[in-house]
Amino acid sequence: MSLVEARAVAVRRGRREVVCDVDLAVERGEVVALLGPNGAGKSTLLEALGGIVPVARGDVERSGRTATVLQTPGLARRSVRANVELALAWWGVPRAQRRRRAMQALERMRAEHLARRPAAALSGGERRRVHVARGIAVEPDVLLLDEPFAGLDGETHQALVEDTSSALREAAGAVVVVVHDRADAWALADRVVVMMRGVVAAQGAPRELLAAPPSEEVARFLGYDGRLERDGGVLLTRPAGVVADGPEQGTVTRVIGQEDGVLAEVRLPDGTVRCRFPRPVAVGDTVGVGLGEGVIRFGHGGVPEDR
Amino acid sequence: MTFFGQGLQQAWDLLLHNNAALLQVLVVTLKVAGLSTAIAVVVGVPAGVVLGLGRFRGVGVLRVLANVGLGLPPVVVGVTLALLMFPAAPLGRFHLIFTLRGVYVAQTVLAVPIIIALTSSAVRDVPRSLLDQARAYGASRRALGALATREARVGILAAVIAAVGSGLSEVGAVVLVGGNIEGVDQTLASAALERVNAGDFAGGLAIGILLLALILVITAALTWLQFGNRQEARVKAS
Questions:
Q1: Residue contacts between A and B (CB atoms, under 8 Å)
Q2: Number of domains in chain B
Q3: For residue A217, is it within any domain?
Q4: Nearest C-alpha of chain B: how many angstroms from A233?
Q5: ipTM field
Q6: What confidence score (pLDDT) does residue B55 get?
Q7: A19 and A162 together in one domain
C-alpha cells in the first residue's frame, strides 16, 4: 500500500498552474528523488504531497503522518538541541521522550557535538544538518525534504549527502526528496522522478533511467550533452560514454578545465560530442574520439531505439 | 548655567529634605507607569502577535490602525476620556474623573497601541521560514504564538520600554483626567508642569532631573533584560 499517493494533482501559484495532472505513488521503504530544472514544479509538488499548499485538482491520499523539511532552514534562537526538541513538541511527542529522541537524531546526522551550541552560531552546513535532524527526529511515516543540500560548498555538500543517505532510510517509512544535483539523486534515491514544466517527464530506478531516458529532453537534462545525427537517427552521448584518442577525427571547439585534465567539446562531421582528455588540448586542435558504452539512439520523432 | 545649577541644587535638596512628598509623587508615577504597562502587555502582546501572524481579511487595516494608535495625541485622549468620565457621561458611574484610577485608565489607553503596534512589527520580523517550518510540523496556533513571542522578545521588550517611558513622562492625558491633584494623582511629570506654571522654573527643572534619572534607571534595567542574555549567548558561542 502506498504511504502517499497523488492522483491527477494540479497546483496553482496565483493564476499559473505549476503542477499539472501529476500521478505519483510512494511505497513504504522507498526513497524517491524529485529532480528537474528550476521552475519545474518539484517543490510545489512536494508541498502538495505534504498538505502545505492546496491542490487545484486531483487529490493526495496519505497513509500516516507526513513531515516536511522546508527549503530554508529556519531555526529558533535557542540551542541546537532545543530546536530539535521544539520540533518534537510541535509534532506532539511527550516531553519525557524529547531529549532522547533529539540526541538520537543529532547523532544520526553526526551533529551531536553541536547540541549545546546556539543555533545562531552555526555555519550554513551545520544549520542544514540540524534542519534535517529535526525531520529525522519526528520519525514520520513520510518524510518530505525540499533541497536539503542547497547552497553548500562542495565538501560540506558531499559530507552531508553521505550522512543523510544512511540516516534517511532509518528515519521514516518513506522519503521524498527534492534535489537539484543529479549526483544527489543517484546517491540517495531508489527511484528518480524527473519533472519538467510541471509534469512528470520520466521516472525509474536511477541507473535504468540514465541508461534509457524516454525522450531527448530528459536525456539532455540527465547529462547527455553530445548529439550526432547518424544513420537516419540521433545519437546522444555523455562524456563518460566518449573515449579520448578514438578513431573519429574532430576539431576542438571549446575547452573547460577540470581537476584531472580537460572537458573538450569536439565537432565531428555529423554533430558535437563532449569528451574528457587527461592531457591539455586547445581550441582548434584536431583530436580523435570514439563512442563507447552508454550512447543512446533516438529514431525519427524522438522515439528511443537500441543502438 | 546658573539656572541649571539651581535646578540641580534643588533636585538634590528635594532628594534630601522633602522625602515624604517626593516619595508619594514617585510612588504614584511608578504605579501609573507600571500598572498601565502591565495591562497593556497583557492586552497588547497577544493582540500584536495575532496582528503579526494573522492572514485573515482586514489584517492590513488593523495594522494601520495600530500604527495610528502610536501617534494618538495625549491631549485629545485626555479630553475625550475626561468628557466620557464626567458624572453625567457614559463612564460617569465608575467615578473615574480626578482620581488615580482614571489616570490608570488614561495611561493604559495610551500604552495599549504602543504595545500592539511594536509587538506586531517585531513578530513580522520573525523569519517566515521558522514559522512555516513550525506549521509544517503541525504546531498549533498557541504554539505558533508562543514561538513568535519568544523569537520577537527583543522587539517586544522595546515596546515595553516605550510604554514605560510614555507612562513615566505623560502629562497631557494625566492632567486632564486626573486634575493634577497633589497627594492623589500627581506624577513627577505633572508636578514638574505645575511648578513651571507657577513660575518656579528651577523647581520644575529639579523634578525633571529626578524624572530623567528614574527613566534612565528603569530603561537601563529593561535594556539589560532585552540584550543581556543575547550577549551572554554570543560569549558562549565564541
A1: 58
A2: 1
A3: no
A4: 49
A5: 0.83
A6: 86
A7: yes
